[in-house]
């Protein structure tokens, strides 16, 4: 499963870098679905984590469609995914203190930077952002692997936010997808390492 995930990750990054739209449509929606299958195969009790990944796939697909409606649909799917992740981390007993303060400051800084450029999207984006940093803070309380993954997720979604405001720079899309793919992989690996299913 992880080999297939790696192949899809490379294919998606090539598609993004070279602008091969059909290849991105093939590879990107499958990334989270393959990770979800890996979770269910490796740790069947982590169904909530797998459900979150399925919503992540839905969000990935929606965000490949142009337009504000598709963006809001994608963001809603990712919001559900973040809520699933939060529930997983809380169930694992995560109680981060320093991380919660640090990520709240990150969210506040992003709110200052993005509020005006986002216009009418500011409120829904920042509500999603607050959920995102809550997930990231809780991930930091699971272990280092999950914490690093969640930090990369925050960074990749900040790049998404910049794109929505019309801010772009060379390589933004490739950096965004690289950090996003690593984020999902590390979160999954961190959770499975911290709470493996018991073996006979």
Please explain how this structure is put together:
The chain has 200 residues and is mainly alpha-helical. It has one domain (2-194). The chain has eight helices and no strands. The longest helix has 24 residues, at 68-91.
Chain-wise SSE layout:
Blueprint (H helix, E strand, L loop, with lengths): L1 H17 L2 H22 L4 H16 L5 H24 L6 H21 L3 H19 L3 H21 L7 H23 L6
What is the structure about, briefly put?
With 200 residues, the chain is mostly helical. The chain contains eight helices and no strands.
Give a count of the beta strands, DSSP E runs of length 2 or more: 0
Q: Which structural class is indicated by helix and strand composition?
A: mainly alpha
Average pLDDT number: 92
Q: Helical amount among residues, as a percent range? A: over 70%
Oligomeric organization of the protein chains: single chain
Using brief descriptors, characterize the structure shown.
mainly alpha, single chain, globular
């Amino acid at each position: 499963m992880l080999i297939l995930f790696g192949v899809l990750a490379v294919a998606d990054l090539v598609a993004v870098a070279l602008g091969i739209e059909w290849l991105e449509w093939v590879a990107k929606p499958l990334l989270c679905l393959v990770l979800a299958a890996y979770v269910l195969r490796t740790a069947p009790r982590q169904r909530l984590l797998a459900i979150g990944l399925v919503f992540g796939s839905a969000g990935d697909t929606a965000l490949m469609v142009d337009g504000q409606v598709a963006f809001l649909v994608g963001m809603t799917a990712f919001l559900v995914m973040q809520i699933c992740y939060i529930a997983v981390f809380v169930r694992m007993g995560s109680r981060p203190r320093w991380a919660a303060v640090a990520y709240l400051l990150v969210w506040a800084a992003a709110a200052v930077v993005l509020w005006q450029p986002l216009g009418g999207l500011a409120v829904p984006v920042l509500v999603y952002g607050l959920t995102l940093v809550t997930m990231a803070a809780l991930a930091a309380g699971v272990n280092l692997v999950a914490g690093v993954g969640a930090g990369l997720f925050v960074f990749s979604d900040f790049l998404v936010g910049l794109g929505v405001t019309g801010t772009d720079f060379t390589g933004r899309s490739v950096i965004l997808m690289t950090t996003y793919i690593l984020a999902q992989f590390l979160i999954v690996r961190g959770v499975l390492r911290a709470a493996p299913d018991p073996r006979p």
